[in-house]
Design a protein that fits this description.
Chain A: InterPro entries: Ig-like_fold, Ig_E-set, SoxZ, SoxZ_dom. The complex is a heterodimer. Chain A is an all-beta fold. Chain A has strands at 6-9, 13-14, 18-26, 49-56, 59-65, 75-82, 86-94, 99-108. Chain B is mainly alpha-helical. Chain B has two domains: 31-77 and 174-286, Cytochrome c-like domain (Cytochrome Bc1 Complex, Chain D, domain 2, Orthogonal Bundle), CATH 1.10.760; 79-165, Cytochrome Bc1 Complex, Chain D, domain 2. In chain B, a hairpin with a 4-residue loop joins strand 9 (230-232) and strand 10. The longest helix of chain B is centred in the first third of the chain and has 24 residues, at 2-25. The chains are: A mainly beta, B mainly alpha.
Chain lengths: 109, 287
């Protein structure tokens, strides 16, 4: 696959104090470091997303570390309470140092 | 009193045993596939005339609750990542002619709607049936002046997935009246019922005679192909139909024919016909 591409699903609006469900998915091979190259017999070096963070208006609302047992294209679903309008910022950190980011705005009515 | 109790206990034991046998024997799950609570997919249909089975059932019914739920939510379905990638390829210029798929097929939406449900089709130039993968390669060579994709190249799988996904929910329909399709169907049928390999299995052994049963830990389906290319959790990737054919043949411990060979194209014509009327599920999610 081409470079990892994040997908995020956040409701466009919520009522004040509502608990919303956020779904995230990123395309990534999550190479565990345990597999061998079939032709050369060499270990394929580990390359996984090792950290995922979600911030709302600069404040962390959810974060987790990931380990090699997490399968390809990791899907993370969690809930968050929305007290004010603002922006959710999602960050995935790759073993090679790359950082993949995306943002979603939410309105409060 | 004691006698009544023991009788009751026996009755209960019988009930428990028969319940667990039912669970073990498996069979298709009684469930409905509605994607995103919007698009209902036909996963159980009456068989067409001359079909050896009474009812055609999608492989979706033979998977676990969790796997079925993955397919029913287009956001969670990892195959949708490949649909998005396929759409990019569709619109990307490649080859000496400076064209993308979209350059010729301008009204992509109406052009693609239903297209994926109608393959394999007769190709008058090649005088054999072709599937979507071969159609893409034909376009690339003849119109885009680009190199054809190698079998199972990542872009080939993504583009095929995108094209077939545009027919989501539409019934699979192979036109056997074109060209010499009938004789390819005959050849496919013969292959379907021919036992091969050290294990001496034919396609029909598992998918006709024993579907709904377990072969070791695997729950056998009818082997319908309405969901291909399919996202298989085992590979964490899209799996093309000819890859799956080869996998099945390998598992019978037989030598397997090359992808897109006459044998596998005949098998594709026949097996696709066996699922006539089932809704296209691409990208389906399987074990």
């Amino acid at each position: 696959m081409a470079s990892p591409k994040p997908r995020v699903k956040v409701p466009k609006k919520a009522s004040q104090g509502e608990v919303i469900t956020i779904k995230t998915l990123i395309s990534h091979p999550m190479e565990s470091g345990q597999r061998k190259d079939k032709k050369s017999g060499e270990l394929i070096p580990r390359q996984i997303i090792n950290k995922f963070t979600c911030e709302f208006n600069g404040q962390v609302v959810f974060s987790c570390d990931m380990d090699p047992a997490v399968s390809a294209n990791p899907y993370v679903e969690f809930s968050a309470k929305v007290n004010e309008p603002g922006t959710f910022k999602f960050t995935w950190v790759d073993d090679d140092g790359s950082v993949y980011e995306t943002e979603k705005k939410i309105a409060v009515e | 009193m004691a006698k009544t109790e023991s009788k009751l206990a026996t009755l209960l034991a019988v009930a428990v045993v028969s319940a667990s046998t039912a669970a073990l024997a498996g069979g298709p799950a009684d469930d409905k596939l509605v994607i995103d609570d919007e698009i209902e997919i036909k996963t159980r249909v009456a068989a067409p005339e001359g079909h050896p089975l009474d009812e055609l059932i999608s492989g979706w019914h033979y998977r676990t609750d969790e796997t079925r739920a993955l397919e029913a939510d287009s956001f969670q379905n990892p195959g949708m990542l490949y649909v998005e990638r396929g759409e990019e390829i569709w619109n990307t210029v490649d080859g000496a002619a400076g064209k993308s798929c979209a350059s010729c097929h301008e009204d992509s939406e109406s052009f693609l709607k239903g297209l994926g449900a109608s393959y394999p089709k007769w190709d008058a130039d090649a005088e054999r049936p072709i599937n979507i993968e071969l159609q893409i390669n034909k376009c690339r060579e003849e119109n885009m002046e680009a190199k054809p994709y190698k079998f199972d190249a990542a872009d080939q799988k993504a583009l095929t997935t995108y094209i077939k996904h545009q027919s989501l929910g539409m019934p699979v329909e192979v036109d056997l009246t074109q060209g010499d399709m009938e004789s390819w169907w005959d050849k496919g049928e013969e292959l379907y019922y021919t036992r091969t390999g050290q294990l001496n299995l034919s396609c029909a052994t598992c998918h006709e005679d024993y579907n709904g049963n377990y072969i070791r830990a695997d729950h056998l389906s009818q082997g319908n192909v309405n969901g291909f290319p399919t996202y298989r959790l085992k590979q964490s990737a899209m799996v093309s139909l000819h890859n799956r054919f080869r996998g099945c043949i390998r598992d019978t411990r037989a030598a397997f024919p090359p992808a897109f060979s006459d044998d596998l194209m005949a098998l594709e014509v026949y097996v696709t016909w066996r699922g006539s009327g089932l809704g296209v599920e691409t990208p389906a999610v399987r074990q």
